[in-house]
Amino acid sequence: MPPINLYKQIILYILHRSRVSLAQSIVIDVIVNLGYTDYINAQSALGELVMSEFVTELDTYHRTYVSLSDSGEKAIGLFIDQLSPDIRREIDEYLKDNHIETLDESVLISDYKLDTNGNYTVTCSIRDRETIIFSISISVYSENDAIKVCDAWKSQSEPLYGEALRRLLGET
């Protein structure tokens, strides 16, 4: 098997084992830090998976997230047995040791765009894979404010979500 195919299988397995979308940099770090390949080959393999639509990308203003598409889930189901048990075990241990399945930055996504009125619309969401659990959009006047909102989302998402849910359920 050509090495690039092994790298693709490893990436599919990493995304399969993670219960949330991962920052592209995290996926690359896993495969490189475990010593399977270098950054360039890992990036190339991931790019091919995106082009073949086995992996989907979500770009934000500061990070790109990746997750398995439906066809990626089917593919890993067909090829998982070809990936050695030792590699699977090593990946599972790495993910567990580095708390990758539960990283906040993997499920908290924020982005902003300039709107037609010259303001910035900031969209912040909590996701589990492709499912949006909670999302808010807010308009701000400057790009600096948009960046502040995006950065604050990491620490403020949980209290905002909790408060919104309590109020909407009439439990204030």
Could you describe the 3D structure shown?
With 172 residues, the protein is α+β, with helices and mostly antiparallel strands. It has helices spanning 3-17, 24-33, 39-51, 70-79, 85-97, 104-107, 143-168; strands spanning 22-23, 55-59, 64-68, 108-114, 120-128, 131-140. The strands form two sheets. The chain has a three-stranded antiparallel beta sheet with strand order 1-3-2. It has a three-stranded antiparallel beta sheet with strand order 4-5-6. Strand 2 (55-59) and strand 3 form a beta hairpin. The chain is elongated and about 50 Å long.
Protein traits:
6 strands; 53% helix; 22% strand; three-stranded antiparallel β-sheet; single chain; 172 residues; alpha+beta
Question: What is the topological layout?
Answer:
Elements: H1 3-17, E1 22-23, H2 24-33, H3 39-51, E2 55-59, E3 64-68, H4 70-79, H5 85-97, H6 104-107, E4 108-114, E5 120-128, E6 131-140, H7 143-168
Antiparallel strand pairs: 1-3, 2-3, 4-5, 5-6
Summarize the structure.
With 172 residues, the chain is an alpha+beta fold. The chain is 53% helix and 22% strand.
Rg, nearest Å: 18 Å
| Total count of strands | 6
Report the principal-axis shape: elongated
Number of helices: 7
- Major sheet, described briefly? 3 strands, antiparallel
Q: Percentage of helical residues? A: 40-55%
> Proportion of β residues?
15-25%
